[in-house]
Amino acid sequence: MAAIPLLTPYNLGKFNLSHRIVLAPLTRSRSYGNVPQPHAAVYYSQRATDGGLLIAEATGVSNTAQGYPETPGIWTKEQVEAWRPIVDSVHKKGGIFFCQIWHVGRVSNYGFQPNGQAPISCTDKGVTPGLDGVDWSPPRRLRTDEIPPIVNDFRLAARNAMDAGFDGVEIHGANGYIIDQFMKDQVNDRTDKYGGSIENRCRFPLEIVEAVADEIGADRVGMRLSPFADYMEASDSNPEALGVYMANAVNKFNILYLHVIEPRMVKIGERYETPHSLLPMRKAFKGTLIAAGGYNRADGNKAVAENYADLVAFGRLFLANPDLPRRFELDAPLNRYNRSTFYIPDPVVGYTDYPFLEDNVPA
Ligand SMILES: Cc1cc2nc3c(=O)[nH]c(=O)nc-3n(C[C@H](O)[C@H](O)[C@H](O)COP(=O)(O)O)c2cc1C
């Protein structure tokens, strides 16, 4: 029986993948006090396969990077030490593990910030308080001279990720967080060299790409983008131009992959009909393209078969099906995800207790 397209091997630079089903980065809010916990080793190793790529949940680069409860960081020695056994557990199963490095920017409030200070961003326009039920605080606009130190935080976080044993990092430039805030013209209202034209708005993101690639090698660096999304009120008036601009611009640094969220995912978890596609970015970018956003087995296979993407990342389906590659291979039924347990702090429930096929528990 011929393998389905999602289960064919792929060379991701020096990483020999045995299949094309990627674990999308998923915040699970179970890293107490911003320190990853032993239960994360169970969770990630459950989803690891020999030659499969996993992307860790968004992981803060500094003490101003957080905006959600119990999310992990990678700026302290304690956090690096805590990641190590988790990374080891994935490597023991032959998995390839990238760390998604993250700064929320204005998607935060005083309670998550050191000394209760204001969150930082390219702007002083806040996210509408009450959006998604959170009392977002008004941000403080970064001065021009404060921006290079943030770039450096990403560089240091990438170094720390290497020290923890990760195979590479994914720079989180998607979903309305700080990098996306700089890129999107509906958020960035700066008048210095980091605002205005598309070149200026992409300067901070590209400085991060360059710094991280210099630090750990471009062959270990990916970047996630969502030009079409308006998640956390970060939208752009010309998302296709923005996406293609970034795809061309990162070519200069020879990074390993771009991981792009489909235009149909304007909000996380919702699907829209749209005439847009990732093809213009696919054509512009020289490296590996990972597509994400509302994929199932059939359209994942189609994306690979038609060379629309090299790899496909699965979020909610992989969250609920630790053995997703095996289930896709067998075309087996899938467990349904339970949204109400996505972000609860429980170390087991909704986290490591989704059954494997062999458990033979009705879904
Ligand atoms: C519980 C949950 C947590 C998420 N956390 C992150 C995250 O940390 N970083 C990120 O880039 N995207 C995050 N996302 C978005 C997913 O990576 C993915 O793009 C989205 O769920 C759409 O893919 P899907 O339809 O396969 O679930 C999250 C989504 C969910 C449902």
From TrEMBL:
**Residue ranges occupied by any NADH:flavin oxidoreductase/NADH oxidase N-terminal domain in the UniProt entry:** 6-333
Alphabetically ordered keywords of this record: Flavoprotein, FMN, NADP, Oxidoreductase
| GO MF annotations in UniProt | FMN binding; oxidoreductase activity
CDD domains annotated for this entry? OYE_like_FMN
Q: Which cofactor does it need?
A: FMN
A Pfam family for this UniProt protein?
A: Oxidored_FMN
Domain of life per record: Eukaryota
Q: Which family does it belong to?
A: Belongs to the NADH:flavin oxidoreductase/NADH oxidase family.
Protein name listed in UniProt: 12-oxophytodienoate reductase
Q: Which organism is it from?
A: Actinidia chinensis var. chinensis
Identify the taxonomic lineage of the organism of origin: Eukaryota, Viridiplantae, Streptophyta, Embryophyta, Tracheophyta
